[in-house]
Amino acid sequence: MSEEKRLRGVAAAPGIAIGLSYVFTLESDDVMRYPITPGQITDEIARFESALIQTRIQILEMQQQIAEAIGAKDAGIFDAHLLVVEDQSLIDEVLRKLEADHCNVEFVFQEVANRFIASLSKIDDPYLRERALDIQDVTRRVIRNLQGKEARPFLSVEEPHILIAHNLTPSDTATMNREQVRGFALDLGSRTSHTAIMARSLGIPSVVGLHNVTELLTSGSNVLIDGYNGLLIVDPSEETLRAYREIERRQGALTEQLVRLRETKSTTRDGKHIVLSANIELPEEVESVLGQGAEGVGLYRTEFLYLNQSTLPTEEEQFEIYRSVAQRLAPHPLIIRTLDLGGDKISDNIENGDEMNPFLGWRAIRFCLENLDIFKAQLRAILRASVAGNVKMMFPMISGLDEVRSGLAVVAECKEELRREGRVFADDLEIGAMIEIPTAAIVADLLAREVDFFSIGTNDLIQYAVAIDRTNERVAHLYEPTHPGVVRLLKMVADAAHAHDIWVGVCGEMAGEVLFTPLLLGLGMDELSAGASLVPRVKSAVQSLTMTECERLLEEVLQLDTPSAVLARCTELAQKNYPELLN
Ligand code: PEP
Ligand code: MG
């Protein structure tokens, strides 16, 4: 038995998962095996042939570049590579095995090539050993071409596993095979990276920010993910497994208790009702929003419709989706956030020129105001869907008044067009601004005159206020929601909203953390929107508190001078009122 090892990272999504690891690295040559039907063999052969042609072209290009740079003699080394893609005995063997084994061609090709490499390496002849290296190199290239540049082979793993990777994109997480991925652990990432947010939405226990877990582990190890405390345990002992079974039992009992709150109101002990809604990334999450007892959707991250697609979604496609989500939620509100591509959510369909600082770059409203065709298709779809339920919309990444006014002008233009076309829409649909850039918080009094509500995106607001990349695990410890500067910004926004008689909510991850519920209530937030699975906990916290104690907490906190002092005071109040909700 190997000794148990514990690796500490950042708790990204709660829950416990136990299983065998599957380690995916970008350099990894792991090729998954999956079955194909006899009818698919022709397609596999076609894929193989085009990968060979592509590889041949790549080798010729490389040869040309080398010839231009250092001379034709050195470029000659690629002749041997070209011979590999033209090696008829290798190709014939692949075709024969494809017919015999009925599995995907990259797997078959890898097997055949490995056999060739192994037998050539065994022969004591320097020339043949060189040939083996050539075959290895070309094999890797052919497989990469077969998988496509962006291929993520772990997406097709057919066994239950714990996925260990350097990084995952939010779209990887969205398309992950949820039947098989029991949990994941990543080198990179932090709690507010969109990958972590997706993991929470999908209920996949995860630990991120482990720095070098992909170097420490190999596939097939026994691992346990503790998504509550941010631990990855390798070769857990019997005693550890027993302790975790007990934690699972207690969490199960708590969940059952919280389920009973579903039909109850999120009202404080002294009678203030806080609207408690949920965030979604995918339309199918609506069922869990309702199941967890949320009062609607406070943030629909529509950019997920634009990820993993070969083309951009049309107005009609979006209209159908928004209408169906709005209908299922009615009479509860559906707040659709207009497209927020950029940052860590990049669409293959949009050329963003590999920005140096994507979080400070061409994203969200900035992108939309320069791509009016894409923006208007979405706005028209939202407006048309607005009659199907209680639809509101909001603009992300507003930095000041001009962007709000420009966004509203485009909405007015879309309304005019729809009117001319004789289409129906809710003319009084509420339009809000997300407050997630410090300048927007500072000029919230100006913005409040133009919009119907504010929704504070604390994930971004904190990253920009404290200058901490929200996805970078190295600085994750400095990402502090309780920074006195952040508390003051939140207060400015809430006060400005109320001075202008509009409502204000929080839809960043802070809204789902029960440690901060008293502070957010004390600040006067009218709405909290959290990942659906967190809603029952937040509701339970709200029900345990009084506004009087939350307001007193805020007064005290405004006198404190460090993030840790503010955090300690928040923790104290949470501990007093609902210790069972703190992990
Ligand atoms: C936020 O920034 O807090 C927010 C809710 O938006 P996102 O996490 O999608 O950037
Ligand atoms: Mg944001």
Question: Care to describe what's here?
Answer:
The chain is an alpha/beta fold. It folds into two domains: 1-248, Orthogonal Bundle (Enzyme I, Chain A, domain 2), CATH 1.10.274.10; 260-433 and 503-582, Phosphoenolpyruvate-binding domains (TIM Barrel), CATH 3.20.20. 47% of the residues lie in helices and 14% in strands. It contains 23 helices and 16 strands. The chain has helices at residues 41-70, 72-75, 77-85, 88-101, 105-122, 126-147, 170-175, 194-202, 213-216, 238-259, 286-291, 315-329, 364-370, 372-385, 401-420, 438-442, 444-447, 458-466, 484-499, 517-522, 535-544, 547-557, 563-577, and strands at 5-8, 10-13, 16-24, 161-165, 181-186, 206-208, 222-226, 231-234, 275-280, 297-301, 333-337, 390-395, 431-435, 453-456, 503-506, 527-531. Strands 1-8-7-3-4-5-6-2 form an eight-stranded mixed sheet, with helices on one face. Helix 15 (401-420) links the parallel strand 12 and strand 13 (431-435). Helix 1 (41-70) packs across helix 6, helix 12 (315-329) runs parallel beside helix 14 and helix 14 (372-385) crosses helix 15. The mean pLDDT is 91.
